[in-house]
Amino acid sequence: MYMINKAAAVWLAFLLFLSMNAKAQIKQVPGPVLATDSLKLLKQAPNPVPNPVLTADSLATGNYKDVLNSFFQLGFEKFTGPAKEFKFTATPFAVMAKLDTTLLVDTSYIRYRTLRNLNFSFSAKLDSSFKFNGFSSGIKYALINKRDETVSRAFVNTVLGNVSTKQLFALNSLISEQISKMPESEKSKAILDYTDFTDGVKNFGALSQALQDTILAIAGRDDATKTLAQTIGRNKNFNLKKTADSLYQDMKANFNKNLLWTIGISDTTYKDEFIFSNIVITSELLQGLNNYNERKNDLELNIKTALQLVDDSTRSGRDLKRVLFSFEPGINLAFKTRGTKKSYLEIKFSGGYYHNFSYLYQDEERDRFTMNTTLRVRVFSDIWIPLDIKYDPKSGNLFGYLNVRANFKALGNAAKQLF
Amino acid sequence: MAKSIKSAKLSTNSLVATASASSKPASINFTFSSGIGQATASLFRNGVLINMQSISSSGAIGFSDVQSGDVTAINGICTGQAVISVSVPTTPATPKKFKAGLIIGAFLIN
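Above: the input entities. Below: the structure tokens describing the complete assembly.
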């Protein structure tokens, strides 16, 4: 039985078109060139273009954002199927920070780690005619979240301990020291020229000849910056800001491969009565499988477990006596652009084991296995379209669902109101 | 031929961090938001490091004696956003914002 209907096929074609379009759009954005631990020659444009803002949200894989959302997410799920769902997910902290932006200041921010690790969601279920078909809600909590670099002292220490970071800091101190002993009449001009360098407005080659010579001379005679001086000397297009950003983003990308384990519970009510028709207890685990590398695509382990309590329709009345267990281990492969490092396409392959603890319906099996694939396409920076496909090798059944999910960087915008 | 920027003439007095008529206290305020941060501010006068302090959360670093012509170097990191503000006039002017990443900056005390 093929449940993928004609509409789904049309959406799939549309989705692939958008995928190609999104890929092309992302590639056009000039991004920072990655540097590894040792600073290397960077092929940068002669006229530096401001870097795109890369945030945790914009770099995170779609799979990661589906498991634990940082801010707000709106989803229109299974819109090609008969049971559609319009879903809103947020963290309590995001809602609070919208009302009081001072909560974003670090001294408050670190105190609300628990609330930021908590997701709540509400959704309205719709039938095939888009009529209300029940209400759903849920909460999810990250028992282990080693991916939140924003509050991690270990991450800060990793960045500060990096050899290239130390070289950039040493260069900044040496040049500041040098400017402080210049004749008074030259200091202002030199500091403004140097600020353009640290802000990435000017490449090394665009600085005044005097400042270029000073940087090379000062950095070249200090052991802490000798390697950096050689790198800069070989590349007139060296951009200090882009180099610093690349170093940071590399280390953040590696950090975002750490373990994330969430547990959650969700419920659904009947459309005509506010009692539960369905309760699901879930556990989901994510762990990066490979170290970050600019040339490699990301591999991620994703294990989902769920226990579902639903109405046993063979019995009269409404109950939650039908108990179903599912276990879905899978691997998520994220394809990313070289320039922006954003994943534009993700494919998740997983197996599914399903067990029914209760009374079996006619022709139903107690244990069932499926092969699942989820295709996620990033159509815009924060909008993903996931297509879930399940295949039951025994029965030959194929199921498909198409969803749309959009993440909102509300905290980032709220932070702008602080200053 | 390479042409470096000339250094001011050094003397014994110029190397010593002594208060003068133009001395004034200054504070460097750090506000980290949407994450944490850490920074070190170094104060240079005539090529000599005369003060260096670090901060690991939002707050202020106080220099009891800054003079016109001093340069303060700021090195640090913020995982969300950072705003740095110096209490006395500087070039470039403050407050200055930094996005998540390394904080690398220098300010000349006017």
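Note for the figure: Chain B has a mean pLDDT of 87.
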